[in-house]
Write a structure and sequence with these properties.
iron, 4 domains, six-stranded antiparallel β-sheet, Globin-like, FNR_nucleotide-bd, 13 helices, single chain, FAD-binding oxidoreductase, Elongation Factor Tu (Ef-tu), domain 3, Rossmann fold, alpha/beta
Length: about 400
């Protein structure tokens, strides 16, 4: 039986040559859509999406990347014929024994469907940060199965604390995962990601165990994933972080510190054992620097050697510290998010004060994500129009948008 995934996997065994052929195929036919440096990103991401590879969150990340590329380079529906022909010819050329004649029609049909999805994503995302590349400057083994990656983007990455970026390693071209920066945007432009090697995962073990300083990562456009501080208004915050879900919530703490407005913040960090607490130094520095409004609480779900007050699961200790009127944020594994979705409202947490990180494992999560991007795009455009006054500078804005 014909297998799209197998044919793509064989073709991507030579990712550079395959991407070059894909780009040259279109250039030879005077279809100049993409700069050459983005050929590998576009070809591999489109191919993975057509082949249906990756989990739901990874496919949404890939779609965000394709949508922004579609928008940035002004792809049009009529380009679909040339793109599909280039994709089919490239896979056929490099798939070797993984190619079967009936795959041509499947690849062409799948490509057209994926491009229609990319067109819709482009409309939702609007203008904004583009795909860029970043060099890994440091890869620190912070705990068992956890790495802290420091990346220096070639172009400054634009994001807000709490947002997430699609990240891809060229070791696994076209397979994207969401990761949130662990700080507010830094003056030097460097971005810090916290990565846990997920058991049976495809991408995260490579990022933790194999990626080394000097390698490049592909970085997609930042997206709102439900952790925006603006949604809380001026309310006090209760932040519940499970594992590497600490990264975006630590960034929110830094955002509050940069513009203090009198709100109090309680950050509850949940891990299994003391050895799993990978960011203790940074947490201690934060608490000492902002002791007047920040409280850090540790929750150990499976460590009987810590003090009794720190023993318990994350949600139990977070509920213990919850106060009426607080905005309640939760970020962590999909399992944690699903537990919080049902357990916290049942414990009395108001629905309008509960902010859960998107997991994309439910259709509603994906619908909410699209809605957030549309809202963010509309708000951004309104700001630009207001700043433009009579509209005289709007064309300049469009030219300057990366």
């Amino acid at each position: 039986m014909a297998d799209l995934g197998l044919s793509l996997a064989v073709a991507l065994a030579s990712p550079g040559r395959a991407a070059d052929h894909f780009w040259s195929f279109m250039e030879d036919r005077s279809v100049r859509l993409l700069p050459h440096q983005f050929a590998a990103v576009f070809f591999s991401t489109l191919g993975q999406l057509v082949a249906g590879r990756g989990d739901p969150a990874g496919r949404r990340a890939a779609l965000a990347v394709l949508g922004r590329v579609y928008r940035r380079f002004d792809l049009q529906p009529y380009h679909g014929t040339a793109v599909a022909a280039a994709l089919v010819d490239t896979v056929r050329r490099f798939a070797g024994e993984g190619w079967e004649p009936e795959l041509a029609g499947q690849w062409e049909l799948g490509c057209r469907r994926a491009l229609r999805l990319a067109e819709r994503a482009a409309g939702a995302l609007g203008d904004g940060p583009h795909v860029t590349f970043g060099e890994v400057e440091a890869c620190e083994a912070a705990a068992d199965g956890v790495a802290v990656l420091t990346v220096r983007p070639m172009r400054r990455v634009r994001y807000l604390p709490g947002q997430a970026l699609p990240v891809c390693t060229p070791r696994l071209p076209g397979l994207w995962r969401w990761y949130s920066p662990a700080s507010v945007p830094r003056p030097d432009g460097r971005v810090e990601f916290h990565v846990r090697a997920v058991p049976d995962g495809v991408v995260s073990p490579v990022l933790v165990e194999r990626v080394a300083p000097g390698e490049l990562l592909w970085l997609g456009p930042a997206s709102d994933v439900g952790l925006s501080l603006e949604a809380a208004g001026d309310a006090d915050l209760l932040l519940a972080a499970g594992g590497t879900g600490l990264a975006p919530l630590r960034a929110l703490v830094e955002q509050v510190a940069a513009s203090p407005n009198g709100r109090r913040v309680t950050l509850v960090v949940g891990v299994r054992t003391l050895l799993d607490l990978y960011d203790a130094v940074a947490l201690d520095k934060l608490e000492q620097a902002h002791a007047d409004w920040l409280t850090v609480v540790l929750a150990f779900s499976n460590d009987h050697d810590v003090e009794p007050a720190a023993q318990g699961d994350l949600l139990s200790l977070a509920l213990y510290h919850h106060q009426p009127g607080q905005a309640f944020y939760v970020c962590g594994s999909p399992r944690l998010i699903e537990a919080a979705r049902y357990r916290l409202p049942a414990a009395g947490v108001a629905a309008d004060s509960l902010h859960l990180a998107a997991t994309f494992h439910r259709a509603l999560d994906s619908a909410l994500w699209v809605s957030r991007q549309r809202s963010a795009h509309a708000a951004h455009l309104a700001t630009v129009l207001e700043a433009a006054g009579d509209g005289s500078s709007l064309c300049q804005f469009r030219r300057d948008t990366p």
